[in-house]
Design goal:
single chain; alpha+beta; Alpha-Beta Plaits; 5-stranded antiparallel sheet; 6 helices; 53% helix; 22% strand
């Protein structure tokens, strides 16, 4: 079973940094991600989703490739590629896996203008290694799918990791 974590940040840049850190941790096999999305509330109040995977573009590229191959069989590769790209883009746009877009938009209405939130759907993780890595960025845990007890343990671990990082950064003799 996957767990959802939503962490709010004061700005888009920090949320993007944490997303990049999470993707790096995934490459190190410390966390297995199902979906990761940065949601920005712009100064004008509009909500913008920054998806990690663009299914429309991926579908269009795959459709163009296969359409071109099929088009070669019928001696019209350009038409085949164009039809394949259109079909692939339509299929990619209809494919939405992971976190529900409407849920992210609704929850992000509570963000201050200019702020952002990171929505992470995690299959598996090594919390003792992941939490200290992301706690240094700050943020506010908005919502999880964990039980109340597990969520409180996570909040305590984040606070402890943040406090430890702040103590390490403090100048000696201060």
């Amino acid at each position: 079973m996957s767990n959802l974590f939503v962490v709010a940040y004061n700005d888009l840049a920090t949320a993007n940094q944490v997303r990049e850190k999470m993707l790096d941790l995934a490459k190190q096999h410390l966390v297995e991600l199902e979906d990761i999305v940065v949601v920005e509330r712009r100064e004008d109040g509009k909500i913008k989703l920054h998806q990690a995977v663009n299914y429309t573009a991926t579908g269009a590229a795959g459709g163009a490739l296969w359409g071109g191959v099929i088009g070669l069989l019928f001696l019209v590769p350009l038409l085949g590629a164009a039809v394949g790209a259109a079909a692939g883009a339509a299929g990619g746009a209809a494919t939405d896996t992971g976190i529900n877009d409407d849920f992210m938009k609704d929850l992000s209405q509570n963000l201050q203008p200019g702020a952002a939130a990171l929505f992470v759907l995690v299959k598996q993780a090594s919390p003792d290694k992941v939490i200290p890595e992301i706690a240094t960025y700050g943020g506010h845990l908005v919502q999880t799918s964990l039980s109340n007890e597990e969520e409180e343990q996570l909040r305590a671990a984040l606070e402890a990791a943040r406090g430890g990082a702040a103590a390490q950064e403090a100048p000696k003799g201060a």
